[in-house]
Amino acid sequence: xxDIRLEHIEKYxxxxxxxxxLNLHIADGSFTVLVGPSGCGKTTTLxxxxxxESVTSGRIFIGEQDVTALEPKDRNVAMVFQNYALYxxxxxxxxxxxxxxxxxxxxxEIDRRVKRAAALLGIEDLLDRKPKQLSGGQQQRVAIGRxxxxxxxxxxxxxxxxxxDAKLRVEMRTELLKLHRELGATAxxxxxxxxxxxxxxxxxxxxxxxxxxxxxxxxxxxFHPQNLFVAGFIGSPAMNMLSGRLEQGAFISSHVHLPLDIxxxxxxxxxxxxxxxxxxxxxxxxxxxxxxxxxxxxVVELLGARAIVPFRLGAQSMKAVIDERFLEQVQEGATMxxxxxxxxxxxxxAETGVRIE
Length: 357
Ligand SMILES: Nc1ncnc2c1ncn2[C@@H]1O[C@H](COP(=O)(O)OP(=O)(O)OP(=O)(O)O)[C@@H](O)[C@H]1O
Ligand SMILES: [Mg+2]
Known about the structure:
Layout: E1 4-13, E2 16-26, E3 31-35, H1 42-50, E4 57-62, E5 65-66, E6 77-80, H2 92-102, H3 107-121, H4 136-148, E7 154-158, H5 166-183, E8 186-190, H6 194-200, E9 203-208, E10 211-216, H7 218-223, H8 228-233, E11 240-247, E12 250-252, E13 257-259, E14 267-273, E15 278-280, E16 293-297, E17 301-302, E18 306-313, E19 316-323, E20 335-340, E21 346-349
Parallel strand pairs: 3-8, 3-9, 6-7, 7-8
Antiparallel strand pairs: 1-2, 1-4, 4-5, 9-10, 11-12, 11-14, 12-13, 14-21, 15-20, 16-18, 16-20, 17-18, 18-19
The structure holds adenosine-5'-triphosphate (ATP) and magnesium ion (MG).
C-alpha cells in the first residue's frame, strides 16, 4: 500500500506562504494530476512529498508510514523533472544505474533492473550512448528509466513532457499511462498542459496561490467546476463569463434574458458558457436550446475539423467553437444566430465565486 496523505501542510519560504493548509489524499496506484498557474506551489508540493523540502507544519504519510521527518532516500519516492538532468559524461546504462550503485545494490541486480526498465521504455538499443547522442524524447525515457529501477512506491513527475514537441508529447503521454498501468505505483504528475491533465488523470487537483480550489475526476472538474477560478482555468478556449443578475429565477444581463428556474434570493451572478456549448440556431433540440440570440461575428479561426469563432453579444466579447461543417453560415463581419446548451450552463455567485445549484 502506498497511498499518500498530506495533512494540514503549511510551507513558508522565509515570509512567503507558498502552501496553505493543504489536505490531500492520493489513492494507492492512482494517477493524480496537479495543475494551476505558474507559482501556485505545484513543484513545492512535489518536493515536499519527495522530502527535498521540509514542511513548515503538517504531516505527510506514504502508506501507513509517517514520512514527515524522513530523508528523501528513505521515502521510496522517485521524481522525474522537466529538465532530465542526465549526467552528460555517462552512458545511458550508467545514467539509469547510477542511483542503484550509490545504494550498493549488487551488480547482477542492477543489470537485471536496468535491462527491464530499458525494455519497458523501448531503449534497449541506446544503452551505450551518451545523452547528447539522444533526442529529447529518448533523454526523457532515460530519466524515467532512472526512476523505474528504484522500484519506488511513488512516482513524482514535474512537467516531464514539456520540453518535447507536440507530437512526441502526445505519444509519450500514452506510453507513460501504459507504463503506469504496468508498474502500478502511485503517480503524482504536474503539468501545464490541459489535455494532459484531462486525459491522464484519475484525479485532477486544481491549485491557486497555494490553496486547493477543487479536486476530483476530470469530468467533474470540467462539467462541474466548483468556482469561477476552476471554471476559467480549465478548458481551452476558456469558458465565456457573462455578468448579470439572478432575478426571480431568471438570468438577466443587458442582452440576455434566460429563465433558469433557480431558487433563492435575487443576486449578482456570473453565467458561464463553454465555447463548445454555443451552437448555431437549430443545431440543438428545442428542449435543450436557449432562445436564439443574434451576435456579431468578429473572425473565424479554422483549426481543421472545428473553428474558433470570436463574436460580440452586445458589448461582450465571447468565443464559440463551431463544427467545420456549419461554417458556410459563419462569415467574418456578418451576424449569426446562436443558442446556448441549457444542460451545460454554469452559474456562479458573483460575490463569492462559488457555483450555484
Ligand atoms: N527555494 C525557494 N525560496 C523562496 N521562494 C521559493 C522557493 N521555491 C519556490 N519559491 C516560491 O514559491 C512559490 C511556488 O513555487 P513553485 O515552484 O512551487 O510553483 P509552481 O506551481 O511549480 O510554478 P511553475 O508552474 O512556474 O513551475 C513561488 O512564488 C516561488 O517563487
Ligand atoms: Mg513548477
